[in-house]
Design goal:
Helix content: 25-40%
InterPro entries: FAD-bd_oxidored_4_C (IPR004113), FAD-bd_PCMH (IPR016166), FAD-bd_PCMH-like_sf (IPR036318), FAD-bd_PCMH_sub1 (IPR016167), FAD-bd_PCMH_sub2 (IPR016169), FAD-linked_Oxase-like_C (IPR016164), FAD-oxidored/transferase_4 (IPR051264), Oxid_FAD_bind_N (IPR006094)
CATH architecture of the largest domain: 2-Layer Sandwich
Strand content: 15-25%
CATH class of the largest domain: Alpha Beta
Number of domains: 4
Cofactor: FAD
Largest sheet: 7 strands, antiparallel
Distance between the termini: 27 Å
GO molecular function, one term: FAD binding
Protein name: FAD/FMN-containing dehydrogenase
Keywords: FAD, Flavoprotein
Structural class: alpha+beta
Length: 467
């Protein structure tokens, strides 16, 4: 492999090929569940360099593991332990190429950090609505490769719906320029949708043309306390009926998830008394703050009258609104502070969620007395982060090691029984590859394998991920 690494250094420059201690930060995932050893970390500075790099890898039979901000949760962007896989960092490919305000599009390179994309849109008084807890470090390439969701899917859709065109380097080192800003284009198969969500296994996304939206004139945020998930689902229906597409966020958090935030981040205010479930709602309004406030107050009054909520707190300023969102976004960090846990990123029909949670909570508590359940997520689009924490006083690492297969089987059996999906927005990666093989439809899996074989016949792009 020395000849390959030397050729790589000649192509990119020695400063952009990392090994040893310099490569270590790239070799461990954010959750600290996967740690491998890369042959090297390569950091190309352009699409042309990346294409040449892929051709070099194909000639030497070197597998490539693409990595964006290394914020993934399913082990899809860390190398294996062999020391023979090249880790590809797109961090240097972070330019904003074009903002077309009239067409409401923004073309950026894959290494652009999500927050930088949001800020580029905001500078023109426009909105790029993809919003995630990791937006300060995750990248657009990773967002698209995993078809990320986030907090505003209810109104704007997943990353796939926010992308109009792509630039991709194929497994053969060819460049597909599909950076179209068109909203209507029926000229053949939709290759964009093929690469979005493929987790770097079919091609390497190098740039994207993204949808922008007019910035709302006002946004209102509130917390509402509910005595049951059934009430939260009914509140969602009422909010959709009253606000329509103005309802941009509808998050749900169980009591234990917020208790973890109180324990580990006591400085964060929680304006409502503890309740079984807490909903975070956000409305965006094109008419202005007065109209938004009146709509919000009417909605909450009707919810109180119908017994759907016990109490509510409306943010009176942008700072208070950020504080409410900070509560929600601090749940994963509080879980991390509490110790290793078993995570599930699942999707269900909204109507099935109350029954799923009641039945699965009861099954887990019967199987593992004292188990603690951290249920939160995007109720508006049916995406729950259904996480399982060790009983109080039990070693979290031991719990994860001994109980994960049992817990996963129980949870995923229930998900499938209720017509759901084992992955809503985090992807498959390494973590859920075997589950997909067991639970995926045989015809769908055969089609996926055929596509993989056709586009990556050497099997060099992110091998042993997804399939």
């Amino acid at each position: 492999m020395n000849a390959f690494v030397e050729a790589l250094r000649a192509l990119l420059g020695p400063a952009h090929v990392l090994q040893g201690a310099d490569a270590a930060p790239f070799e461990r995932d954010w959750r600290k569940r996967y740690e491998g050893r890369a042959l090297a970390v390569a950091k190309p500075g352009s699409t042309a360099e990346l294409a040449a790099l892929v051709k070099l890898c194909a000639a030497h039979g070197v597998a490539i593991v693409p990595q964006g901000g290394n914020t993934g949760l399913v082990g899809g962007s860390t190398p294996d332990e062999t020391g023979r896989q090249l880790l590809l960092s797109l961090a240097r490919m972070n330019r904003i190429r074009e903002l077309d305000a009239a067409n409401l599009t923004l073309t950026v390179e894959a290494g652009c950090v999500l927050q930088a994309v949001q800020e580029a849109a905001a500078a023109q008084d426009l909105l790029f609505p993809l919003s995630l807890g990791s937006e300060g470090s995750c990248t657009i390439g990773g967002n698209l490769a995993s078809n990320a969701g986030g907090t505003q899917v209810l109104r704007y859709g997943n990353a796939r719906e926010l992308c109009l065109g792509l630039e991709v380097v194929t497994a053969q080192g060819e460049i597909w320029d599909g950076l179209s800003g068109l909203r209507k284009n029926n000229s053949g198969y939709d290759l964009r949708d093929l690469f979005v969500g493929s987790e770097g296994t079919l091609g390497i996304i190098t740039a994207a043309t993204l949808k922008l939206y007019p910035k709302p004139l006002a946004q209102m945020t509130a917390l509402a306390a509910c005595d049951s998930l059934e009430s939260a689902v009914a509140l969602l229906g009422l909010a959709q009926a009253r606000a329509g597409s103005g309802l941009t966020g509808f998050e749900v958090m169980n009591a234990f998830s917020l208790s973890l935030v109180r324990r580990h981040f006591a400085q964060l205010p929680q304006p409502l008394p503890e309740s079984p479930w807490t909903v975070l709602l956000e409305l965006s309004d094109a008419e202005g703050e007065q109209h938004a406030r009146a709509l919000f107050e009417t909605l909450l009054e009707q919810a109180l009258e119908r017994g759907l909520i016990l109490d509510a707190a409306v943010a009176e300023s942008l700072e208070q609104s950020r504080g409410l969102w900070h509560l929600r976004e601090s749940i994963p960090l509080a879980q991390s502070q509490e110790g290793l846990n078993i995570k599930h990123d699942i999707a269900l029909p909204v109507s099935r969620i109350p029954r799923f949670v009641a039945e699965t909570d009861a099954s887990l508590q019967a199987a593992i007395p004292g188990v603690r359940l951290v249920n939160f997520g995007h109720l508006g689009d049916g995406n729950l982060h259904y996480n399982v924490q060790a009983p109080q006083g039990q070693d979290p690492a031991l719990f994860l090691r001994e109980q994960e297969p049992r817990v996963n089987a129980l949870v995923f059996d229930a998900v499938m029984a209720h017509g759901g999906s084992i992955s809503a927005e985090h992807g498959i990666g390494r973590l859920k590859r075997e589950e997909l093989g067991r639970r995926g439809h045989p015809v769908a899996l055969d089609l996926m394998r055929a596509i993989k074989k056709a586009l990556d016949p050497q099997g060099l792009l992110n091998p042993a991920r997804v399939l």
